[in-house]
Amino acid sequence: MNKRKIKLNKSKIFLLGFLVCIFFYASTLIMGNFVKLYVVSEEKHDIAIKVNAKVRSDLNSNSDLLETYLTDEEINLFEKKKSVNIKKDNKIFSAYVYKIYYNKNQNLIKFKINQKNMVKASTNEQEFDIIYSKTYTYKIPEKSIVVKDKMKGVYVLNEESKHTNFVQIGKILDTKEGYAYVDKVAESSSNDISVNKNVKNFDRIILKPNFINTNIKIY
């Protein structure tokens, strides 16, 4: 009688285990069909800094000067005669670095605007975007980026295995409206050869990665 009960119990345990496996497989299969993905795109992007600046008339020429103070990190982005674009109120006008006066974290820089009266001269500070570079970047949703082992990256779908791999991304050059604009060259913060270091154009990545969707097949 006891042997029979033991056999029945083993059968029930086996059946329960089998049903759990089927349920788990079915659940992951269903979840794998509903994971939202985002296609990485390459995009030319303006790299800029925001400044509060004053605009003065240049008495020696038919142009205006935009003056502002920059930190040591910001001033290193510029050199004398460097061409830039200045943006205000959705209007963009060209300028160049006229003069730089270095002073620890209070560096005065003057931009000469190539056309006069492009912006109203005023002793009051106004907000401007100084566009100092244009570069091709990867456009990636900020919510797709995670930190793993002190590295920033995304989970890229392997189209053959249907699993995802953590891929390190390059330096984030700018963020805007929920998107990060990422340098196409990944940072070399890891010497581990098993770490993928380059996201690519048209890679499909998990939009909102979590413990579950990064460990299941995605269809």
List keywords for this structure.
single chain; 219 residues; alpha+beta; Elongation Factor Tu (Ef-tu), domain 3; 6-stranded antiparallel β-barrel; 3-stranded antiparallel beta sheet; 48% strand; elongated
Tell me what you see in this structure.
By secondary structure, the chain is of the alpha+beta class. The protein has a domain at 46-134: Efflux pump adaptor protein, beta barrel domain (Elongation Factor Tu (Ef-tu), domain 3, Beta Barrel), CATH 2.40.30.170. 16% of the residues lie in helices and 48% in strands. It has helices spanning 2-32, 72-75, and strands at residues 37-39, 41-58, 63-70, 83-88, 91-101, 107-113, 122-141, 146-148, 151-157, 164-168, 170-176, 179-186, 204-206. It has a 6-stranded antiparallel barrel with strand order 2-3-6-5-4-7. A 3-stranded antiparallel beta sheet has the order 8-9-10, with no helix packed on it. A hairpin with a 6-residue loop joins strand 9 and strand 10 (164-168). The longest helix is centred in the first third of the chain and has 31 residues, at 2-32. The two termini are 49 Å apart.
